[in-house]
Amino acid sequence: MGLAGLVTLMIATSGDEAFVMFALFPGKAFLLHLILLGIAIGTDIIVHLFSREKVPAEAHGFIVHNQENCRCFVK
Predict the structure, then answer these.
(1) Are 57 and 64 in contact (CB under 8 A)?
(2) pLDDT at 43
């Protein structure tokens, strides 16, 4: 998951509060979630445009295996 996806997820979700909102005022809650979806998609596009830096996996300390067969747990 990239930075843009993480930002979009944080904007678009409302957690457990959504159940209460849909129970108390379903029409306004649906409209609110549609507005949040629009804001999240717009923000995703903007963040994705500004964070186009591709960092290889090795830079984060991940081990990339190029072999066909990986025997990581040898006894």
Answers:
(1) yes
(2) 87
With beta carbons less than 8 A apart as the criterion, state whether 31 and 63 touch.
no
Residue pair 3/51 in contact (Cβ under 8 Å)? The answer is yes
What does the radius of gyration of the chain's CA atoms come to, in whole angstroms? Answer: 20
Tokens of 43: 């923000």
Judge contact between 72 and 25, C-beta under 8 A. no
pLDDT digits over 32-50, tens only? Answer: 999 988 988 898 888 888 8
DSSP of 2-59: -HHHHHHHHHH--TTHHHHHHHH-HHHHHHHHHHHHHHHHHHHHHHHHH------GGG
What are the φ/ψ torsions at residue 31 (nearest 5 degrees)? -65, -40
CA distance 20 to 28: 12
